[in-house]
Amino acid sequence: MPQTVRAVVVKAKDAPVVVENIIIPDPGPGEVVVDVLTCGVCHTDLHYKLGGIGNDYPYLLGHESTAVVSQIGENVTNVKVGDRVILNWRAVCGECRACQKGQPQYCFNTANATQKMTLEDGTELSPALGIGSFAEKTLVAAGQCTKIDDDVDAAAVGLLGCGVMAGIGAAINTGEVKRGESVAVIGCGGVGVAAIMGAKLAGATTIIAVDIDQNKLDQAVKLGATHGVNSKEQDPIKAIQDLTNGFGADVVIDAVGRPETYKQAFYARDLAGRVVLVGVPTPEMTLELPLLDVFGRGGSLKSSWYGDCLPSRDFKMLVDQYRLGRLDLDAFVTERISLDQIEDAFQKMHDGTVLRSVVEIA
């Protein structure tokens, strides 16, 4: 029987978010309903609010979550009622050309729930990243649920559902950081700090944090960076080169996603080094580089989609690293808030005063 729950909705471009009653249908074939425990306030949700992703309002926001399966539809075999799960937006299909090539982390046909959640008046909602978990319950495809043990903090591990996984994966999966390599990360918000932690986990020995905010740099050094560079006060390209014997870093990760920061990343890497773009640009941004420089520097220029993550592979491994004390996911949880405080959390995120505000729902 359909259920009515409280959820956070944005009804028009740049409108304030509101807490409304929404209708959750019973799960159909391949679908599950989950009771949401926690949901991180991610910059992607702010992009939805501001119209930076699409115009399919109203949006049901939230996607970075831990939850408990409360109902399952037909043909669901990967989870059962009562399982604790991390929600993900890469439910791989197993059939597209990426999956068939053995690269499911790039799946081009990821699954979402087929049915629609609605407002009480029947208006269909567009769930953020096919999840929509700023809600007491949500409806997702079964493949969007990755089972985890319940002996870890839901607020911390739920952040693997998006931003933290994007950063860690940018270093480990996309950048393929190796033991003893040097890594520079430009932009030390949540994703950038996660990339720093990923570089540390992979065994990098020189990890350079770059930002214009000294408080963020101080925090990045506490969480794994070996050096901090304030790019408001010094040229980040030269600073990175100076810290790597004049060569540049083996891997440079742009966690900002602007043409200016991408050019810094491009020129701050060593010859044959790797550049990874994990910061999300806006639609109007363009990049211009001398093609001879692209050719002459060799190496690789990569984009990192969700940290090139495969949830079934990566989530459990990273939860284990957290449990072992090698990955400080607790450090990302700056504050714990309610559904009614999300608008304020967006402002704190914009101001850079938090790594993550996490909504605790159940």
UniProtKB/TrEMBL annotation:
Task: Please state what class of enzyme this protein is.
Answer: oxidoreductase
Q: Which UniProt keywords apply?
A: Metal-binding, NAD, Oxidoreductase, Zinc
**Domain of life, source organism:** Bacteria
A single GO molecular-function term is: mycothiol-dependent formaldehyde dehydrogenase activity
Q: Name one Pfam family in it.
A: ADH_zinc_N
Q: Report domain Enoyl reductase (ER) positions.
A: 17-359
EC identifiers of the protein: 1.1.1.306
The UniProt entry, under Gene3D superfamilies, shows:
Medium-chain alcohol dehydrogenases, catalytic domain, NAD(P)-binding Rossmann-like Domain
Tell me its cofactors. Zn(2+)
Tell me a GO cellular component.
cytosol
- Mind listing the GO biological process terms from this record? formaldehyde catabolic process
The UniProt similarity line reads: Belongs to the zinc-containing alcohol dehydrogenase family.
What NCBIfam families does its record include? mycoS_dep_FDH
Q: What is this protein called?
A: S-(Hydroxymethyl)mycothiol dehydrogenase
